Amino acid sequence: MTKSLKFSFLLFLGLFLGVSPVRAIDLPDFPSCTSPTGSILVNYESGIHGIPGSSGEYVGSDVVYTVSDTQVTQCFCAVSGSGIQTNWWKLNSLDQEQIEYLKNLGWIYIADGSAWGLDATPYMALNTQYNCGGAPVVTPTPTGSPAPQPCNGCGGAPTWSCTAAKPAAPVVTSVVRSATTAQITWTAVANATHYVISYGTEPGKYIYGVPNTGKVTSYVVGSLVPGTRYYFVVIAVNDCMPSDPSTSGQVLGASTTRGDVLGLASTGSLPAVYLSLALGGLFFALFLLTKKLSRRSA
């Protein structure tokens, strides 16, 4: 049944029952994340992201496209290869009855888009799943009916959740930095199937990352900019369930531009540093002694 026939039927049914029908809604078309269009608003290669209608944390990449002045497409791709597409529709003139009608179709009402990095205005959001490639897709178990349903009065689509046990957070034990690489080492987590490394040049802003290191406890990150300080966190993943970020060693790396060293470069070690300091102090003491003796002899 086409959109026009559907709304004509609703209009006829409303008049027959003596109930005011919902004013027709012209739903916009959104491109699929499998072949996205529009300009890129933000692009995160890895990290922890949120999905509207869900309170969970999702690990993977996230690309947001501006389709039009009122349409934004968010393409999230989990480390497992399963994707969630969120269609964001900026509201202009929908009344409350139309909003309720869309909520019954699975749309989620967002009162203020600024909390999601969008304009400070109401939006409607709709989540759908797609396959973004990568590892074999792990199908999560839905907590509700697979078909779009009202979320027990909250107006959201069914919340999909991962049923795997949450692993413990790893502990970063060392970061060995060279000019363009950094070798990160962490403790093993019992039920982890793989690990995720997130990093960036500011604390808490991890715009780079490795979505799947495999089941290892050490990894070399390349393509770093010499003289730039980096901050690293490691996340353990049990199938589709991520851990909290690493509990220590969150600020590690080296900076040759500011002189701050948080972790030693691969060419240095603590004994070498202590030896250099001791030799420097010895030479300074000899200089003072020589100067004092020269004054006495004069």
List keywords for this structure.
298 residues, Immunoglobulin-like, seven-stranded antiparallel sheet, 3 helices, 18 strands
Q: How would you describe this protein?
A:
The longest helix has 28 residues, at about 270-295. Residues about 15-20, about 135-155 and about 250-275 have low confidence and may be disordered. The protein is built from three helices and 18 strands. The protein starts with a helix and ends with a helix. It has two domains: about 5-160, no CATH class; about 170-265, Immunoglobulin-like (Sandwich), CATH 2.60.40. The protein has helices at about 5-15, 95-105, 270-295, and strands at about 40-45, 50, 60-65, 70-80, 80-90, 110, 125-130, 140, 160, 170-175, 180-185, 195-200, 210, 220, 230-240, 240, 255, 260. Strands 1, 2, 3, 4, 5, 6 and 7 form a seven-stranded antiparallel beta sheet that branches. It has a four-stranded antiparallel beta sheet with strand order 13-12-15-16, with no helix packed on it. Keywords: Membrane, Signal, Transmembrane, Transmembrane helix. Pfam families: fn3 (PF00041).
Instruction: Give the averaged pLDDT, no decimals.
Output: 74
Query: Which stretches of 5+ consecutive residues score pLDDT under 50?
Result: 15-20, 134-153, 248-274
Total helical segments: 3
Q: Report the portion of residues in β strands.
A: 25-35%
Tertiary shape: elongated
What is the alpha-carbon Rg in Å?
Answer: 28 Å
Give the count of structural domains.
2
What is the N-to-C succession of helices and strands? HEEEEEHEEEEEEEEEEEEEH
- Distance N to C terminus: 110 Å
Keywords: Membrane, Signal, Transmembrane, Transmembrane helix
Domain Fibronectin type-III: 166-256
Transmembrane segments: 272-290
Pfam family, one: fn3
